[in-house]
Predict the structure.
Amino acid sequence: MPGSPTHIKNSSVEWLVGRSKTLPNQETDFDVLPTRTHLLINEKQTTPSTRSINSYLHADPLQRRQKKLMSHLFGTESLPHYLQTGSPIYLNENCPTPMSLMLHSSFGVERMKLLAKEIIKNDLHTSTYRDLLSDLRLGKCPPEGTIIVSIDDLGTNWLRPVFKDMIEVFTTEGLALVVGVIVFGPQNPSNWAYLRELDSLGVEVASHSVHHYNLPEVEPDTLEEEISGSYQTICEHLERCPNTLILPFGNRDPDGMIMQASQQYTFVIGIPGGTSFDGSPPFYLGRISPAVSNIHHTIQLLRATFSPQ
């Protein structure tokens, strides 16, 4: 409930997360991640374990900060999968990223049908960013011929009918898909019910920020609201936290502030670059736009862009 604290138990300690309201403008408001988190003794235990407190205090600072920020709703289940497993992902080799295609409502249903046929004809394996984690945990690169198709700009307060028709083309064929949602404005319960249905079908629901601002141009406080605010809203309404942030306009800043503000996520998706992912999360991955007049040419562009160098 907005404005009230949320208690989350973790081993012998209990998290108290103060949830505050932020008013970005006069028209809308939404919950954002708390700026302060207090570590309290669990009243059900007489004394907290010194070892458990020391383990928290001496943990890796980045991981500790991530856990503190992301435990605010559902405990450890709200953490990205790479933290739920107990250790971050570190790849020892440069993996080429899957082919990744960016779509919008203007792509339309008919071209979506042609794209589905072309994917099946070329024996490509559709996947989601969430699906990549099982391979990454094992230190493996994604299989050759993997393609991620994502549709941007679904709204949680309103939804263009064409989005549902485009999505149905893929789900009917059993093809995987990612949708990027903008969580601006009053939340529409029927839209969230639809997104939860998509989630149950294996469609990944990714964050596309709160207002779709050009993030490199916003102030630090607004950047935090756009990235962490959308994360929290999806956690709360989808009942599953997002793994992926799709950057509005595909832009990231040269100073790395966006990546630093995106520590809740496993993947940050832009447009330029991002054709290999090594190191540790969050991984920056790239996408390309389709050749709308020629679906076959789109597949050729994807192969050329994301082929191993």
Remarks:
- Confidence is low (pLDDT under 50) at residues 1-78.
- The radius of gyration is 20 Å.
- Residues 6-84 form one domain.
- The first strand starts at residue 6 and ends at 10.
